[in-house]
Design a protein that fits this description.
The complex is a heterodimer. By secondary structure, chain A is mostly helical. Chain A has nine helices and no strands. In chain A, helix 6 packs across helix 9. The two termini of chain A are 29 Å apart. Helix content of chain B is 34%, strand content 29%. In chain B, the strands form three sheets. In chain B, strands 1, 2, 3, 4, 5, 6, 7, 8, 9, 10, 11, 12 and 13 form a 13-stranded mixed beta sheet that branches. In chain B, strands 15-18-17 form a three-stranded mixed beta sheet. In chain B, helix 1 packs across helix 3 and helix 2 crosses helix 3. The longest helix of chain B is centred in the first third of the chain and has 28 residues.
């Protein structure tokens, strides 16, 4: 196999692992996302409940799907509607693992943050740890408010992709 | 579309979806008007990937406060780091040349930079400060958990290992680099008028057009030559205090490509390995080479830092071609194969090197149409 072909294969593996693993935990989160997406499509684009708060609508449908799924598997339905639980469940196989998983995840996320480019890292940490607004961060870093948001967006995306590698 | 391009496109789409999800997430925290809410709902309906990314962003967000609280750097240090993003944490302990008119704001900043420099060095270990660079030197440091690459003013590329500090002093006649802590790989810019020397403990290394690695270690130091040659000198009796030994006898060793010397604390030669395990000695280097819009010549140089079998780009037009991508650093073959897929590129292998030139140059006469 040529070097290039090998490179493709390796990268494809990584990519596939990423797409599969991210969603292929015990809860069949990929199915859940598909189903969630289909329900979004089936809902009237201009329906008042969507327009009023699209995010809440998304989470409500997601939570309902998770409950339906649990019922179908004849497990105890989730005792809580809390979105944290639902969303954690998307990637965590069982409750017992969730606590350990969370600590490890945060440590890994901290490592990813440490590897961000300095401006992204500064903007992100100032925002989430020091709880500064865009304007204050902009003053400290001597950049525009618009750029602050851009750096935070880039940083969040980099964290997201960096964490996906661990999945 | 080639498979390579397809892969890059998929990765690019993934990144874009993640950035859009992040952007929406932040916007939603600030509140949306009705048109924006509709736009967000439409974006979600565009693709299941958007739905998945948005959920992932929500989860990430839940960890962000706790994770960012683990960042060891304080606000001022983060600010300093950000201010020097391009310069890679230069610890400019003393401005080399203060401009005649310095705005008060800048003076304040310079003071801040010095405070930050002290903080950084303290973070890296109190010892580094005590043995800090003499005045007129610039220092570059890497954080304890990250590698840093820095382009020095003469074009020399230095790749710093974790928790390393190097000091640099260039003038019209000489180039001096001192390894204060840790180690680094140097890809030395060619400048025959200004010889380059690297101080490592009680040794001075004289470079002769080279890529080499110099590291401090518990027993003294190690020097590994990837390509070119390096001469190693031991300090004289009085040299320990001085940075430029006035007199020298003969070098204690001269290393060629693939060779490694272990040095003791007093600068004497412990042993020379004529067939060093290069992969092991450079194992600390980043595992992949990532470049954006870089010239083929630059990328080739970076590969050559890992590989004693050099890649030579003969054609100026190919050398100047700009490319982007990510390759495994120890798999130069992938990069060579990639170059081979570019139009008009010919790859010729010999025992000593891999040459890349243009097929157009092969025709002896300009072809008339």
């Amino acid at each position: 196999m040529s070097g290039l072909a090998r490179l493709f294969e390796e990268q494809h593996d990584t990519l596939n692992r990423y797409f599969l693993k991210r969603t292929a935990h015990a809860w069949d989160a990929q199915d859940l996302v598909q189903e969630l997406y289909l329900r979004l499509l089936r809902t009237d684009r201009g329906s008042p409940e969507v327009i009023r708060n699209p995010e809440a609508y998304l989470f409500t449908v997601a939570a309902n799907l998770v409950k339906e799924h649990a019922a179908k598997r004849q497990r105890n339905p989730l005792g809580s509607d809390e979105l944290d639980v639902v969303i954690d469940r998307l990637a965590t196989p069982c409750d017992a693992a969730a606590g350990i998983d969370r600590a490890l995840r945060r440590q890994r996320l901290a490592d990813v943050i440490g590897r961000l480019t300095p401006k992204c890292r500064a903007a992100l940490v100032m925002h989430y740890r020091d709880e500064l607004g865009y304007r204050e961060i902009g003053e400290r870093l001597d950049i525009s408010t618009h750029m602050v948001k851009k750096y935070i967006v880039k940083a969040l995306a980099a964290c997201r992709l960096g964490m996906a590698r661990y999945d | 579309m080639t498979e390579f391009a397809r892969h890059r496109q998929a990765a690019e789409q993934q990144r874009r979806a993640a950035e859009q999800a992040a952007s929406w997430y932040l916007d939603l925290r600030e509140g949306l008007d009705e048109a924006q809410r509709q736009a967000f709902a439409d974006w979600l309906r565009e693709s299941p990937v958007h739905v998945a990314e948005y959920l992932a962003m929500t989860r990430l967000h839940g960890d962000m406060g706790a994770a960012s609280a683990l960042d060891p750097l304080g606000g001022d240090e983060l600010r300093e780091l950000a201010r020097h993003e391009r310069a890679v944490v230069p610890l400019r302990l003393k401005p080399a040349m203060a401009p005649a008119e310095v705005a008060p704001r800048h003076r304040w900043r310079a003071a801040l930079a010095q405070v930050a420099a002290v903080l950084m060095v303290t973070l890296l270990g109190g010892g580094a400060w005590l043995y800090g660079p003499p005045p007129g030197w610039d220092a570059y440091a890497s954080a304890p958990d990250t590698l840093r690459s820095v382009r020095l003013p003469d074009g020399t590329d230095a790749q710093l290992d974790r928790a390393s500090v190097v000091a640099v002093h260039f003038d019209a006649r000489q180039r001096h680099i001192e390894i204060i802590r840790g180690g680094a790989l140097f890809d030395v810019g060619h400048d025959p008028a200004r010889p380059l020397t690297v101080r490592l403990g009680a040794n001075e290394l004289q470079d002769i057009g080279t890529v080499f690695d110099a590291h401090q270690c518990a027993d003294g130091g190690t020097v590994t030559v990837i390509s070119g040659r390096v001469r190693i000198w031991q300090d004289g009796a009085h040299a320990a205090a001085a940075h430029f030994p006035a007199t020298r006898s003969a070098p204690i060793a001269e290393l060629a490509s693939g060779q490694q010397a272990n040095l003791r604390h007093d600068g004497s030669l412990d042993l020379v390995d004529r067939h060093a395990d290069l992969a092991r000695s450079t194992g600390w280097l980043p595992p992949d080479i990532h470049f954006e819009h870089a010239s083929v010549a630059e990328v080739a140089r970076r590969f050559n830092a890992y590989n004693p079998h050099p890649l030579v780009i003969e054609d100026a037009a190919i050398a100047a071609t700009r490319i982007s991508g990510r390759f495994h650093a120890r798999d130069m073959e992938s990069f060579v194969a990639y170059l081979g897929t570019l139009p008009g590129v010919r790859v010729t292998r010999s025992q000593d090197d891999i040459r890349v030139d243009s097929t157009r140059a092969a025709s002896p006469m300009p072809r008339s149409l």
